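Field reference: sequence -> structure
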Amino acid sequence: MSGPGSGATLVLREVSKSFGSVVALRSGTLEVQPGSIHALVGENGAGKSTLVKIVAGLYRRDGGTFRFQGQDVDFGSTAESKAAGIAVIYQEPTLFPDLSVTENIFMGRQPVGRGRRIDRNRMHAEARGLFERLGVHIDPRRPARGLSIADQQIIEIAKAISLDASLLIMDEPTAALSGVEVDRLFAVARSLRDEGRALVFISHRFDEVFDLCDTVTVMRDGDYIATRPIAETTVEEIVSQMVGREVAELFPKTPAPIGDVVLSVRGLTAAGVFHDIDLDVRAGEIVGLAGLVGAGRSEIARAVFGVDRYDAGEVRMLGKDVPARNPRAAIRAGMAFIPEDRRKQGLVPEASVARNVAAGIRRGLTKAGVLTSRAENAAAGPWAARLEVKTNALDMGAATMSGGNQQKVVIAKWLATDPQLLIIDEPTRGIDVGTKAEVHRLLSDLAGQGLAILMISSELPEVLGMADRVLVVCEGRITADLPREQATPEAVMRAATATTPAAAPAADQRMVHP
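Structure field:
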């Protein structure tokens, strides 16, 4: 890396930050050039988020060099950072849902006309111009409520451009996007780079890093490890630098004895969503639910657990009917459900780790109607330890933890209910490669202990690496039921783009050929 003052937009050297006795960052180092897209990678807990929050003005560094546009800076607020020309685009933007797209872009700095009245026509015209410049089509007058995550991110980018930001930091921006939305976002990012802006791209998806970025910086355990041009490194080298060891096996699947049917679904149908779904999951078996985004996989899982309605069919657990639209009955029957959006649907971010873990068994912890923190800690401690949740105290807020640790907390919460079936949607979404291997090992161990697992994943290597059988969903129908040895990428993708399943044998281990 070249020295400070070399024309870089952003220079951080040996930046440190501690919170009490906890050292979050020891040697944060990053240099970003104008007209480039710079990847920042590392496991959860590596210090990436702390580094970004220092740049964004949320934290003040304890030591080290922080230069922006050739000047020494020390932002005391996000307002100072934004005013200097820095914008951060988060995985889940926080727009004002009841305001229009335009109002969200120009919040606090609306153009005014005669009589000091807000000039709405000018605002809408400027917003429309921003979207045309980005090559996207969003109605500036529509309310923000109901917009996709992808469109919300584009609005944040438009806001950054309207502020003439010279540095944009994109923090896991693609985690909730479809392939088409990712392509659009990347086209926007490249256009910003070509305008001479500097971009930092944080992602756990190496294919995206290699497709989009010019340079990559690796962090580990709060330390700077290395910076390389993308053209001069490999996925294997980056993974080794991230985890400090060779990750030879990301999918530690071990054979487990397959027992009796735990979950049986027959003829499950929700009009316009999915149709005539038949599936079984046995004790000790991991069944992967694969398919393209929008195929109906998550909707099937939510209906099985009773979150969403269905119009026909039946769900049975251990031979007994499970009432529709009744998650409490599903839990009593032995089901556990870990949703895709763990922050909004799986966690209470403001609550402690112990309170989150104990949430599903709270009734059994109360005495004379009183639930104490001691009881929650006693119940949650063994599960937090078993899943190696990295937290100094069980009373730590879940919102302060890394994505990987949040996922472990959600898993611990459901395992504490002693389920017979675990439905897990996108088990490793947004978490780093090392933690992915830990989650995969845990799922394999749980199956080995007789737990039935239904796993939904958009990552084909994860499905193929972990599943004993793969059910492929296409346009709301199961188009293939593939045993592990026949579940190749080609077979899954053929079924994922088929629309009419062929007749299948009546045997339990049926396979449908598209």
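Note: The mean pLDDT is 87.
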